[in-house]
Every structure is written in structure tokens, then in C-alpha cells.
Specification:
- The two termini are 28 Å apart.
- The protein is globular and about 65 Å long.
- It contains 14 helices and 18 strands.
- With 427 residues, it is an alpha/beta fold.
Length: 427
């Protein structure tokens, strides 16, 4: 017997198919069967009147900490957080302990994701062994096992020759190389943005050149190789200029931004609150304006969370010793509404495009669309619902989130994965 799910009366936004209208979506046996005005009975009917019906949201940059730091997060807890946030697909970063650097590691992540039965869990593999930037990891075997890209996230690949080899090697498998752009010669032991506030706080700073110098170098390598390249969590006005020039030259370069680099500045560190300690660090208001302008221009290709959970005991260490990272997966949509929709930088169609169609293209997966025959991954959003961020209700294991008490709009009502309702508000 066929399994049927009919979503009625919603505003369907599917940027990949240029759909933005009030209509219905029918899912049969886990696949999109029809989009339009549908008059029929179904086993399950959802009335989405007044709601947005979109392709399942995609986050191509999360840290689920497994294997190695399961006390901070697991693939199961991270997946539960993801569907509560409307994400039907996520990409785990390989900076686990040990790192994801061979096909067995990749298969482990995928197996744990299937066992969690929440969201689709993908992973990137490490570019280099132990993420040390010296010897290439087993990229070919990982690609065969389903790795959707490669990155040493948390570390930038310092040696130009190693990065050049990685790009050339990745071209053989048509997978993207993603880079955490940070030249350690400029970053040193910095813990926040280098500038006025690092000076008055007496904390070592990370100069914007740390990001920009590596991004500039990698752009030269992409010019030489023509290989797909993705700049992770760009944070500076200078990086925006580099991306703008690269795209003007039609180079195969994409980039992503996070909520915290759109909403928070280095002034937030003034009370030594380590929940604001991230890498790349929070920058200045000028940098935020440049990034927002880049989003408005279409230079940014994906909105990501860089969800980085940590134990409270770790974040209670002094600023110099505490780890980098913010756990923001479960409030990400509301944060993007505040950063981009409320100021009029994007409309809902533009926002959904950067959270569905475009990130799917970056990692080369057949997601991010409500096209007929595609997998029935759908997110239903109440665009007018307002709520306060309450970290005590997070499904994530960690609470290192600086947005506690923030009032945001745009609440996920239901998350449907493969035609199954995996999250419903009130669960």
C-alpha cells in the first residue's frame, strides 16, 4: 500500500523550480509526487495555511563531535537538534578525535546518521592526515565511500604545495575542497579579532590578514587548477572583496557565512564571555556590513551554522584557555530572519535559496528541491511565530550559545524527511 502525505494550502517556496505560490505538495512513498492544486484524499493531510512549505533546509557545516567527544554532542543528539531546526540534511566536519580521514571513518558517520533516523547526515573528509597539513589523507577512498568534500576545518592548510596537490587530486573525483582560511603566521596564538577591543582587553588578536592572506593564496591556486573551491565562514570585508573579484573572473569559488558573523561584533567580548569566542573571530561592524552587502549582491552561496557544541565546564575556563565555538543550530533560522529578512537584505525566497538549492549544489547532492521524483524532504515554517531562544530546551547536548533570551521570528513547525514527519512542534 502506498504511503501518502499531502501538505495543503501552504505558501510553497522552491527556488530551484521558481515556485513561490499558494499550493499543495503530495509525497508518495517518500518521493515528491506532485506540486500544485491537488484534490484528493491521502493517508496523512497537513493543513499548512499561513505557513511556508520549503525544500528541507541544508546545513553544510556542523560539528557533531562523534567520534571522540560524545560528551559534547553525538550524531544522534545533533540530528535531533537538526530536525528541530528544520534541517533535513547536514554535513559533519572531520575535526573529530580521531579525524575523519579514511573510508571506514566516513562509513561510520553515515551509519550513525542512519541509526539516528532524523536527518540525512553527510560528512566531509580531512584533506590531510591528522589534519596536520603535511600528507594528503585517503581522499579517493573517502570519495568512493560518499564523502561530499574535504576540509581540515579548524586548521587551514598552511603549505601551498600541499593545497595545490589536494586541489589537483580532488579534481579526479569531482568533489569540493573547503578551506578554513587562516594563515597561522598572522593568527599566532590569537583568541579574538585584532583591534581596539583586543588591545583594551589585553587579549592576543587574530588579524584579518590571517583569513585574507590564505584566501588570496588559494584563489591563485584555483586560477591554476580550475578546481571547485569553497571558502568556509568568511568574516572580513577584505575576504568579501577577494570573493567578489574571484567571481568576477568566473572562478569556481563559493563561500558561506554564519549567523554570528552577521549579528555579533568583537565588542561582545568586552565582558570576557567565552560564548563569544569563535574562530574565525567576531569582527567589526564594518565587516558585518560588508558581509551583508555580499549576501545582498549574491556573492554568498550558503548560510551555515558552524554549530560547535562544547561542555559548560570548558566554556567556563578563562578566555585564553576556553575552546572556540557557538552552538546555534536550533535557533539558526530565527537568527537569519533577524540578520537578513528584517533589515530587507533578503526576502524569503532568497533566504530559502541559500539554505536549500545552493548548498546542495556545493556538496553535489540531489537535495534542496521539491521537484517531482525527488526525495520528500520538506520544512514547514511559521514565518510570523515569535519566540525567545531558550538554551535549556535545546536538543543539543551543549548550551554554549550567546543568544539566550533573544526574541526571534520564524519557527519551524514540521520537518519531513523522506516523506516521514521527523519533527513536529510540541514534540
Amino acid at each position: 500500500m502506498n504511503s501518502e502525505l499531502l501538505i495543503k494550502n501552504g505558501r510553497v517556496i522552491d527556488p530551484a523550480n521558481d515556485i513561490d505560490e499558494k499550493c499543495d505538495v503530495l509525497i508518495i512513498d517518500g518521493k515528491i509526487a506532485e506540486v500544485g492544486k491537488i484534490e484528493k484524499d491521502a493517508q496523512t493531510i497537513i493543513d499548512a495555511a499561513g505557513k511556508l512549505v520549503t525544500p528541507g533546509l541544508i546545513d553544510i557545516h556542523v560539528h557533531f563531535r562523534e567520534p571522540g567527544d560524545e560528551e559534547e554532542e553525538t550524531i544522534a543528539s545533533g540530528s535531533a537538534a537538526a530536525v528541530a531546526a528544520g534541517f533535513t540534511s547536514v554535513v559533519c566536519m572531520p575535526n573529530t578525535n580521531p579525524p575523519i580521514e579514511n573510508e571506514t571513518d566516513v562509513e561510520y558517520i553515515h551509519r550513525k546518521g542512519r541509526q539516528a533516523r532524523k536527518t540525512h547526515v553527510y560528512t566531509m573528509g580531512a584533506i590531510t592526515k591528522k589534519r596536520e597539513g603535511v600528507e594528503l589523507a585517503e581522499m579517493g577512498f573517502m570519495a568512493d565511500a560518499g564523502a561530499v568534500g574535504f576540509t581540515d576545518d579548524g586548521n587551514g592548510v598552511q603549505y601551498s604545495a600541499v593545497m595545490l596537490r589536494a586541489l589537483k587530486y580532488a579534481a579526479m573525483f569531482d568533489v569540493v575542497i573547503a578551506q578554513h582560511c587562516q594563515d597561522n603566521g598572522f593568527a599566532g596564538s590569537g583568541v579574538m579579532n585584532a583591534g581596539y577591543y583586543s588591545t583594551i582587553l589585553g587579549l592576543p588578536g587574530i588579524d584579518t590578514l590571517a583569513e585574507e592572506a590564505m584566501l588570496w593564496r588559494d584563489i591563485q591556486l584555483v586560477k591554476k587548477t580550475g578546481v571547485r573551491y569553497h571558502a568556509q565562514h568568511i568574516s572580513t570585508a577584505g575576504s568579501v572583496e577577494l570573493i567578489r573579484a574571484a567571481k568576477k573572473d568566473s572562478l569556481p569559488i563559493t563561500c558561506e557565512v554564519t549567523p554570528h558573523h552577521l549579528l555579533l561584533t568583537d565588542e561582545c567580548c568586552a565582558e570576557y564571555d567565552t560564548n563569544y569566542k569563535v574562530n574565525p573571530p567576531l569582527r567589526t561592524a564594518k565587516d558585518i556590513e560588508a558581509i551583508k552587502e555580499a549576501v545582498s549582491e549574491g556573492l554568498v552561496d550558503a548560510l551555515v551554522t558552524d554549530h560547535a557544541p562544547h561542555l559548560q565546564s570548558e566554556k567556563e575556563l578563562e578566555f585564553l584557555a576556553a575552546p572556540f565555538g557557538i552552538a546555534s543550530l536550533e535557533c539558526a533560522l530565527g537568527l537569519y530572519v533577524k540578520a537578513l529578512l528584517e533589515p530587507g537584505i533578503l526576502d524569503w525566497v532568497g533566504l530559502i535559496r541559500l539554505m536549500t538549492e545552493k548548498p546542495a549544489k556545493i556538496i553535489g547532492v540531489d537535495k534542496g528541491t521539491l521537484g517531482v521524483g525527488e526525495q520528500g524532504d520538506v520544512t514547514i515554517i511559521d514565518p510570523n511565530a515569535e519566540y525567545k531562544v531558550d538554551v535549556s530546551k535545546f536538543r543539543s547536548k551543549s548550551r554554549n550559545c550567546p543568544y539566550q533570551g533573544w526574541k526571534v521570528a520564524g519557527k519551524v513547525e514540521k520537518t519531513i524527511v523522506g516523506g516521514e514527519i521527523r519533527f513536529s512542534v510540541g514534540d
